[in-house]
Amino acid sequence: MAKSFPSIEEVIHASFPKGTKMEKHSLILTKKQFSQVQQKAKAKVDTKVYRYYTLIDNGKTIGHAVLGFRKVRTKKATVLYGFDMKGTLKFTEIMAFSEPPEYIPSSIWMGQLQNVSASEKLTVGKDIPTISGATLSARSVTDAARVARAIYEIILK
After folding, report:
1. Are 128 and 122 in contact (CB under 8 A)?
2. Which residues is 21 bridged to in the sheet?
3. What is the DSSP letter of 129?
């Protein structure tokens, strides 16, 4: 049975005010930015192209959301990471997952990636527990979270 995933609007409105407007942008990292992001994230960066959203409430920017695309085993997963203006990771939501559904991290596990301060390292096996049977998924989601955080801190902040 196929799992249905929430829309980007539903995910953003669950963590930010209902009236939040989203401006969609594309980002192509320069060589320098690519290197900085990879170094800061301490994770392999697979692409220079990203989609992100500026979140606006009452004319004021209140955060950003970055879409991350990562290969889990042989197929890709798309995950949306939302940050407030303090750099807090407000949410992590799987938007698409092409691997078998048993490899999707549970909502309880994904809850660990909500309201995470900018100072937390997000390392599977240290800060974030692994998932029995879905270790590659857990690693992929957290590596991409560090990449999204690095993009936020280096480019979007």
Report:
1. yes
2. 56
3. -
